[in-house]
Structures are given as C-alpha cells and as structure tokens.
What does this fold into?
Amino acid sequence: MPDPSFVHAAFSSIASRYVTANHVLSLGMDILWRERALKIIAEWKPRNLLDIATGTGDLALTVQRALPEVEVLGTDFCRPMLDVAVQRGLVNVLEADAMNLPLPDAAFDAATVAFGLRNMADYEKALCEFRRVLRPQGHLMVLDFSMVEGPFAAPYRFYLHNVLPRIAGWLTGNSGAYDYLGESIEAFPRGAAFCELLSRCGYKGAKALSLMGGIATIYTAEKS
It folds into this structure.
C-alpha cells in the first residue's frame, strides 16, 4: 500500500500540471471514462454526491456541470490539488482524510472515488468509511486503473513500468511522482476480487464495468 506522506508530497508537487498529464498519458481516454461514469451517476438521480479524493476535481466538475441539480462536495487531503479544483470551478470542497471523513453518518445519496482509492493506505478501511457516510441504499462508484489481460498484457506492463513514468516526469517536472504507479496498479484488486472486497465492506450488488480492454474499470455497488 502507498505511504500517505509520499502520496501527499507527490501530488502536492504536481498539482498544477496534473490535469494535463492525465489527458496526455491516457491519450484523452480519461475524459471518455468520466463521461461513462456520469451516465451511471445520472441514472441514480442523487440529491447530493460526495467525490472522495477529488484531486483537481475532474469527476466532481463533470457531475457539477452536467447535473446542476446535484449538490457536489469534493474532498481531498492534498490542499494544493483542491486549490486547483477551486480555480477550475468546483464550488464545494473540503480538505479531509478519506479514511476519517469529518462528515455525519448517512449524509449522501452517492459517493465516488476516481483514481484515488488505489493511493490510500488501507482499501478496506476506506471503503467502510465511504459506506458510513452513505444513506441506506446509497450508491458507491470506484473508477480506477486495472490490468489488461491476454496478448496485450505484456506491452501494457512495459508501458506502465518503463514509458509512462518517463513521460509523466517530463510533463510534471517530478519523475518520482509516477514511479510507483505501475506497481500500485498491479497490486490493486480488480474484477471479481474487488467486488468481493466491496461485499466484505458492507455493500451489495457489486458490478465491474471494464473499459478499454481492462485499462480502467468502473465498480458500482449499494450500501446494504
């Protein structure tokens, strides 16, 4: 599991260039992934939504702009990232540790975390904390990287461990910030394993939607 102090320092150092780096490194696919996530969120018709580890606000801003009737709150433990989110137009933000949210029980209809859970020190503890702030039958969405299977697995691993960190270092000016990315993606539970983790943490109806052949996955579940 990533060290929180390392993650905080790394993201603080690249906050101003984080959005550009994401678009370049994913070849713009991250935008399409969030649009797919938005369609699912819209079907839930939440009154409010908590975007955890919102970072520079990409997913929260997507929801805020497309679904103005939904009250969106973005939280992150990295203030420089939140500052960028505010500059980009995110209205409601809160600096907070995702595993100890200063929010009341059963306060939100939906909670999302995009490319953030993988960076947390304890997946299970974090998922249980997200469940705490959800109302009964509230929805959770986790969007994160996964692993490509089949003939493209080897080229994808080479890109993750050798190409991506170098390009990211050039784009952000911090070559070390992305060095751990490949290992974190390999270690992150995926598919059925992640759905089982959701069940252990008190969720029901867990589903996994693979994107771009497994490069990323959208997981959804309800608070049981």
Remarks:
- The mean pLDDT is 90.
- The CA atoms of residues 110 and 139 lie 5 Å apart.
- The chain has one domain: 4-146+189-223.
- The longest strand covers residues 134-145.
